[in-house]
Automatic annotation (TrEMBL):
<feature type="repeat" description="PPR">
    <location>
        <begin position="56"/>
        <end position="90"/>
    </location>
</feature>
<keyword id="KW-0677">Repeat</keyword>
<feature type="repeat" description="PPR">
    <location>
        <begin position="21"/>
        <end position="55"/>
    </location>
</feature>
<dbReference type="InterPro" id="IPR011990">
    <property type="entry name" value="TPR-like_helical_dom_sf"/>
</dbReference>
<dbReference type="Pfam" id="PF13041">
    <property type="entry name" value="PPR_2"/>
</dbReference>
<dbReference type="InterPro" id="IPR002885">
    <property type="entry name" value="PPR_rpt"/>
</dbReference>
<protein>
    <recommendedName>
        <fullName>Pentacotripeptide-repeat region of PRORP domain-containing protein</fullName>
    </recommendedName>
</protein>
Length: 116
């Protein structure tokens, strides 16, 4: 499908000597997540980190949103912690996604803490 084609083009670019940018990684992540390919998105993110490409706020928010929508609060929180150790600060979108995810999971105490 579209995700496999995006990954194929991405790998071809790398093999051709093109250095992927944060934006190109985010494009592939978006393709994966639009097609509910969260496992592939996780692998792309891991590859991004191994390659020394610095994730940006968009990268983190894509993953936080995806894991939050899946109800995988542990992975969502892990991405948030990685974001906290980077120079990227959470924004309104970050906190909104996390509050919604914790509220859906009936973890309103955590939602209130994030809101404050």
């Amino acid at each position: 499908g579209d995700v496999d084609k995006a990954l194929e083009v991405f790998m071809w670019m790398r093999e051709a000597g093109e250095v992927p940018t944060t934006r190109s990684y985010n494009t592939v992540l978006t393709a994966c997540l639009r097609n509910s390919e969260v496992d592939k998105a996780s692998k792309v993110f891991e590859n991004m980190q191994r390659s020394g490409i610095k994730p940006d706020r968009v990268t983190y928010n894509l993953l936080i949103s995806a894991f939050g929508n899946l109800g995988d609060l542990n992975k969502m929180w892990r991405v948030y912690e990685i974001m906290g150790r980077s120079n990227e600060s959470p924004d309104v979108h970050t906190f909104t996604q996390m509050i919604v995810a914790f509220t859906r999971a009936r973890r309103s105490a955590v939602s209130r803490q994030l809101f404050q």
